[in-house]
Amino acid sequence: MLAILANRTYRHLFAAQVIALLGTGLMTVALGLLAYDLAGANAGAVLGTALAIKMIAYVGVAPVAQAFTDRLPRRSLLVGLDLVRGAVALCLPFVTEIWQIYLLIFGLQAASAAFTPTFQATIPDILPDENDYTRALSLSRLAYDLESLVSPMLAAALLSVIGFHSLFAGTVVGFLASAALVLSVRLPVPRAGPWRGIWDRTTRGMRLYLATPRLRGLLAINLAVAAAGSMVIVNTVVLVKTSFGLAEPQVALALAAFGAGSMVAALALPRVLDKVPDRPVMIAGAGLLVVGTAAGIALGSYGTLLALWLALGFGYSIAQTPSGRLLRRSAHPEDRPAIFAAQFALSHACWLICYPLAGYLGATIGMKGAFAAMAGIGLIGLGLAARVWPAGDPTDIGHDHAGLPPDHPHLAAFGANGGHRHAVVIDDLHHHWPGARRH
User: Fold this and answer.
1) 7-187 has which fold?
2) pTM across the whole model
3) Transmembrane segments in this chain: where (predicted)?
4) Could you read off the pLDDT of 170-189 as tens digits, one per residue?
């Protein structure tokens, strides 16, 4: 897996991702302490609102930002967005009012909503070989999981010698280092598509995404992932401290078990995906999430919780990590930023639904009811994925183009007599998936 780090451009971008993640992790710890400093016992409500603002920014900003930035040089765009994020983080230590937290968090996450899909869409251009790209996806998953383990420990060590306001300086340094690493490499410039109006550019990623069967299946899997993941992220602290009467170290250990399961899956996935197609792997991961969430109804001890969280982390990574392969396969290079932005927005829309639902149900009908309800949502996602994502996921599909003139370059390349076959991607010549509607 580490062999792909021999590629200098990818190595620098991966280092930029890791450093920015560590900085963001420090900010998460510092933000919780800042909220408590300003709001006291209401800090949870402040953080919950900040989380909702984050998800709203992700869902609403990503497609619009991509539409306005799709013709900007990628390197300049990524560096500029890192500098914006660093400038916002620099303001956080000087916050004196809760509304200022909300405003700055929206600005920071809006910049991230533009940065992340652009960053993700760049990697397939750097690593065109699918096996290399698969390993890059697993490394990225490992980076996220390691950040969730390392950042709290690093924050705890720093807090023993500095005040929490100084942790925000680590966030600023992280974003500046990320910008420097991106600036140190030359990024490929994808072929620009035809000029389009702003509404067309804003909605293009969503239209391409929702017209592609495998990506509709991915959206359903995103729902199953969010249903299970929200139970872990929102309710771990309640289960550990209220249901089992334990303390903060046991909360951290439970979350570490979830991360460990995800890391094990990320390490194993490249070898699995060399032999097994994406669809059965991802559906199996979603199925494990549904079964694991349902098993939470019978949760009876802390030890069982650790084992269950380990299994859920494993399923979480299996269901989610290969998604970049589907996106890469489902768009031409010039459309990848749009389709990655659509995935970013739609997947976070699933989290925006499931986060508050998991918390509300746990507080009103109890954890057993919450586990049952979220397992039901996951089962809906799993069933939809199996239904809308065709088995075998065919790519070379026979079809015709009744409206094209016989001398059109596309027909000249692939043949026009009674239709032709090639790997189908939704684009200006293929508005609908063959078999769904003739074009």
Assistant:
1) Growth Hormone; Chain: A; (1.20.1250)
2) 0.85
3) 12-36, 42-65, 77-95, 168-189, 217-239, 251-269, 281-300, 339-358, 370-389
4) 889 999 999 999 999 988 77
